[in-house]
Specification:
two-stranded antiparallel sheet
Length: 353
């Protein structure tokens, strides 16, 4: 550590940052076949895609206790198989995809996603239900397990375990009145994260729950869009989330010249409750936990006037219009202040013959 004296420059922000040299080069290729089923066919069959893939990664980092001389290079190789399915049903649609590594550094890593959309054919445009399922079993990455640099050093290859999670969610869609309502949950085993010192850790179990409601209504020129989300994590030492996220937009839209000029004046607001967000670590390029600073508890509002004249769209916007009304504690991230009040404008012109 040293003090900067006037006229003694130039200076670097950090000697450590400029000496770190960690790199990763990767190649991921796959070869597969696909069958696409026509929606006009009399019989219903799913559209299918299957493939086999090869993944190669090369990692470079400093030697142990020689971090400024990055000459240690390692490579890993993996083979995997994957597939995807799309199936149009009389009462909905099914989508699924997955991947399984059967050889190499990522052997036994698995990922599966599936979504089922259900509706009553007669009321397809009025109501719909979507159910999502996901599961994964994956090892943390190479640098998460082993890292040598002049800033940090760790080697937890013999301690880290494969992270497992299972998730299930459902959302009710009601386009008739612009509503969307849903809930989702994830259960983790051996959840991987970086602690407040920036070192890798795993906790045995973690549960994340979320529920939301959204409305998008236009009534006699009055436009209302709102979204509320409630979240909960069973271990805020490993994962920090705001309990409540709110977004709202209220505006008025008026057709000045029929089929030619439309103007809209609106105000939008964002708000989230206070929580201990992750902090970004520049030399490591990661987000890690911290318990010293809370984000949130500050409403952010924008004012916008937009218009459309035939093929020309334009807007004038004042961001953070409520600056200084609720103090100065506005941050997008830990130690990263949000933008102050700002004026913006934009123009979009579509040309066509």
């Amino acid at each position: 550590d040293y003090k900067l004296r006037e006229g003694s420059g130039p200076h670097h922000i950090s000697n450590e940052y400029t000496n770190d040299s960690i790199s990763r080069q990767a190649y991921d290729g796959r070869l597969g076949v696909a069958y696409h089923h026509s929606s006009h066919a009399s019989l219903r069959f799913p559209s299918l895609r299957v493939w086999a893939g090869y993944r190669m990664s090369r990692y470079t980092m400093g030697k142990r206790y020689m971090y400024t001389n990055p000459r240690m290079s390692q490579m890993d190789h993996s083979l995997y198989a994957g597939g995807a399915l799309d199936y149009d049903l009389p009462f909905g649609r099914l989508e699924a995809d997955g991947r399984f590594y059967f050889w190499g550094a990522h052997r036994l890593d698995t990922r599966l996603n599936a979504a089922l959309e259900l509706y009553i054919p007669k009321w397809k445009e009025r109501f719909g239900l979507r159910v999502d399922f996901e599961m994964a079993a994956e090892k943390p990455g190479h640098f998460e397990q082993r890292y040598y640099s002049n800033d940090r050093i760790w080697d937890v290859r013999d301690q880290v375990r494969r992270e497992l999670y299972t998730g299930l969610g459902a959302e009710l869609k009601a386009p008739w009145w612009g509503g969307r309502y849903g809930a989702k949950g994830r259960i983790y085993k051996h959840y991987f994260y970086f602690d407040d010192r920036g070192y890798p850790q795993q906790c045995e179990g973690l549960t994340v729950l979320s529920a939301w409601a959204e409305e998008d209504i236009v009534f006699y020129g009055v436009c209302l869009r709102a979204r509320a989300q409630v979240q909960h994590t069973s271990n805020d030492q490993a994962l920090g989330l705001p309990l409540l996220n709110l977004y709202g937009e209220l505006g008025y839209q008026y057709e000045v010249v029929r089929n030619a000029l439309t103007l809209k004046l609106s105000v939008e607001m964002y708000y989230r409750t206070k929580y201990h967000a992750d902090q970004y670590n520049s030399p490591l390029g990661i987000f890690h936990r911290q318990q010293g600073t809370e984000l949130g508890g500050y409403p952010m509002a924008n004012l916008m006037l937009s218009g459309k004249w035939k093929t020309v769209a334009l807007y004038v916007m004042v961001t953070h219009v409520d600056e200084d009304l609720f103090g100065r504690n506005f941050f997008d991230g830990v130690l990263y202040p949000a933008l102050e009040r700002d004026f913006r404008f934009g123009l979009k012109w579509n040309f066509y013959s």
